[in-house]
């Protein structure tokens, strides 16, 4: 994994948490760092950011079965959901 991407993602997530809003750019970085191994943005076509945020939150909480345990902050969850919900690649 590219250390630079992780550092940037963490910095952006910190900024996002302070701003209290989801950011598509930060979501792309977080998704590429933590989700791209199994998922692509196209996998979520037609899903809203709100729906995706709920699903991801349930996966992190262990309520929904997933291939591996996910550890994401609330900001990362919101950002990834915003990125996938926007249909960005």
SSE arrangement:
Blueprint: H1 3-19, H2 24-34, H3 49-60, H4 74-85
Instruction: Count helical runs.
Output: 4
Strand content: under 5%
Give the biggest beta sheet. Answer: none
Backbone shape: globular
Instruction: Give Rg in angstroms.
Output: 12 Å
Give the class from helix and strand content and strand pairing: mainly alpha
Low-confidence stretches: 16-20
N-to-C series of helices and strands: HHHH
Let me know the number of strands: 0
Average pLDDT number: 83
What percent of the residues sit in helical stretches (DSSP H or I)?
Answer: 55-70%
Distance from N terminus to C terminus (CA atoms, Å) equals 19 Å
Domain module tally: 1
Features:
single chain; 89 residues; mainly alpha; 4 helices
Description:
- The protein is mainly alpha-helical.
- The chain has one domain.
- Helix content is 58%, strand content 0%.
- The chain has 4 helices and no strands.
- Helix 1 packs across helix 4 (74-85) and helix 3 runs antiparallel to helix 4.
- The protein is globular.
- It starts with a helix and ends with a helix.
- The relative contact order is 0.23.
- Residues 16-20 have low confidence and may be disordered.
């Amino acid at each position: 994994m590219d250390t630079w991407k992780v550092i940037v993602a963490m910095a952006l997530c910190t900024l996002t948490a302070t701003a209290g809003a989801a950011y598509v750019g930060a979501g792309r970085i977080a998704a590429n760092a933590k989700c791209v191994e199994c998922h692509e943005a196209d996998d979520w076509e037609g899903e809203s950011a709100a729906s995706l945020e709920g699903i991801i939150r349930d996966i992190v909480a262990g309520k929904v079965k997933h291939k591996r345990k996910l550890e994401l902050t609330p900001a990362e969850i919101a950002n990834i959901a915003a990125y996938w919900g926007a249909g960005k690649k």
